[in-house]
Design goal:
Elements: H1 3-31, H2 37-62, E1 65-67, H3 74-87, E2 93-97, E3 104-109, E4 113-119, H4 120-125, H5 128-143, H6 146-173, H7 179-221, H8 225-246, H9 264-271, H10 283-291, H11 297-304, H12 311-319
Helix pairs in contact: 1-6, 1-7, 2-6, 3-5, 5-7, 5-8, 6-7, 7-8, 8-9, 8-10, 8-12
């Protein structure tokens, strides 16, 4: 997929999500007779602004994120500073998350500023050049404003979920004498739940597209970035899958998994075929073993419900950039 195809797909998917949300908000608010343009703006814009402002603080608390100074980790700061300059963006604050899975993420808001975080486990798992490629990917998200886009679109399905179940409960436990209102509430509830699932699928697709886009950015700003990121992704999947089999706690950090460079919920499945590779001395062998896998119909189905592309498809896309 070319860069222009990626741009078109991302823009098209975002347009569909916003259009569907606006249309169904209009229908719902019209049916309950409280519709006007100001109410619509309040629901769609106000709620998203609030959650966007507060989300970084929630992320910091959930993932035990702390800022690290240049004196504490000069190597990490040097990588972020160099890649920020090559990416043409302001250097974000450098953070470390003390959670037991190897991963990384970027996030921001007007109040909290821009931040890029790596987990302490990632620094133990990857070589320096692979950490550099991962950070190149995360800085790509900041450059393309993926953080703001995904925070915006991710809340829309949740709003319809809330409206749907509220209406269904209202139809079941409201006044029985008002049958017409109860029927209308039930209809709105079922419709909202259906829209929730539709928007969720589009949101997941948009999330997968942005991962390809950020991968491409890393390959552009990091020397030999395609190879380094391929090895990093394979090792992250392998290590996360091993940790999840040994310690189920590793699966409890996926509240904001769309932010991660790799989906921790898919890691255990993806890592099963890598179990024969011992250690990380042969990083390229690990990548080659992933690339030899066939993408089955089951893999494609699981991918539809994932925030991240299938690991085989993702590595194949990176191979095309070399």
């Amino acid at each position: 997929m070319s860069i222009w195809q990626l741009r078109f797909s991302i823009l098209g998917t975002l347009t569909v999500i916003i259009a569907l949300s606006t249309v169904f908000f209009t229908v719902i608010l019209s049916l309950i007779r409280v519709f006007d343009i100001f109410t619509l703006a309040f629901f769609v814009i106000g709620f998203n602004i609030i959650q966007w402002l507060l989300a970084p603080y929630i992320i910091d608390a959930i993932y035990r994120v702390k800022e690290v100074s240049k004196a504490e980790n000069p190597k990490l700061h040097a990588i972020v500073e160099r890649l920020s300059q090559k990416s043409g963006i302001k250097m974000p604050r450098v953070m470390v998350a003390n959670i037991p899975i190897p991963n990384a993420f970027a996030y921001s808001s007007p109040v909290a500023g821009t931040k890029v975080a790596v987990t302490s486990e990632l620094l133990k798992t990857l070589d320096d050049e692979e950490v550099e490629a991962v950070l190149g990917h995360e800085l790509g998200h900041l450059k393309h404003r993926d953080v703001q886009i995904m925070m915006f679109v991710s809340i829309l399905p949740a709003l319809f979920y809330f409206i749907g179940y509220s209406m269904l409960l209202s139809s079941m436990y409201g006044r029985r004498s008002d049958r017409d209102s109860g029927s209308a509430a039930a209809l709105i509830g079922v419709g909202s739940i259906a829209v929730y699932w539709i928007l969720t699928m589009f949101t997941l697709y948009l999330s997968r597209l942005r991962e390809y886009f950020a991968d491409r950015h890393s390959a552009t700003v990091v020397d030999d970035g395609s190879r380094k990121l391929s090895e990093a992704l394979a090792k992250i999947q392998h290590a996360t899958g091993r940790l999840k089999r040994m310690n189920r706690q590793a699966g409890s950090f996926s509240s904001f998994k769309a932010l991660f460079i790799s989906d921790p919920d898919r890691a255990e499945t993806d890592a099963l075929s890598l179990a024969q590779v011992r250690g990380y001395a042969a990083d390229q062998r690990l990548v080659e073993q992933v690339l030899r896998r066939e993408v089955t119909a089951a893999d494609r189905l699981l991918e539809l419900f994932s925030t991240h592309p299938n690991i085989v498809k993702r590595l194949k896309a990176l191979q095309q950039l070399t």
